[in-house]
Specification:
This protein has 129 residues and is an alpha+beta fold. The chain has one domain: 2,3-Dihydroxybiphenyl 1,2-Dioxygenase, domain 1, CATH 3.10.180. The chain is built from two helices and nine strands; from the N terminus they run E-H-E-E-E-E-H-E-E-E-E. Strands 5, 6, 7, 8 and 9 form a five-stranded mixed beta sheet that branches. A four-stranded mixed beta sheet has the order 1-4-3-2, with helices on one face. A hairpin with an 8-residue loop joins strand 7 (99-100) and strand 8 (109-114). Helix 1 runs antiparallel to helix 2. The longest helix has 13 residues, at 77-89. The protein starts with a strand and ends with a strand.
């Protein structure tokens, strides 16, 4: 349903390093980057995705108030665990370790971290085991 989305970050280099470290755990990578010069000086960003198609963007260019929640699909529970470990190693704040969240449904296996700007970033697998 969503083609792509973007969030504003306060420290582009720090956030890019953070997302570069965690995205491989769920099979994604930085696959595009645009400079301020390319966008007329109003935006600089990095796009992450699978198969060369960016679907999640971070960038500078606008103030953000409040905290966003973004959940990334993980192919299996081991990938959720790897995402959480990579995020913690990259400096995330724990916001819920990997585990079943049965209040959503019996197979909801997720992990939650806060990124450098305090956004609630999740990896989730809906498959049993």
């Amino acid at each position: 349903m969503i083609d792509h989305m973007g969030i504003s970050v306060s420290d582009y280099a720090k956030s890019k390093a953070f997302y570069d470290a965690i995205m491989p755990a769920i099979g994604a990578e930085r696959c595009m980057e645009v400079t301020a010069e390319e966008t007329g000086g109003t935006y600089e960003g990095a796009g992450y995705g699978v198969g060369g198609k960016p679907s999640f963007w971070i960038g500078i260019g606008g103030a953000l108030q409040g905290r966003l929640h973004v959940a990334f699909v993980a192919p299996d529970r081991a990938s959720v665990d790897a995402f959480y470990a990579a995020a913690m190693k990259a400096g995330a704040t724990d916001n819920g370790p990997p585990g079943i969240r049965a209040h959503y449904h019996p197979n909801y296996y997720g992990a939650f971290v806060l990124d450098p700007d305090g956004h609630n970033i999740e990896a989730v697998c809906h498959r049993p085991e």
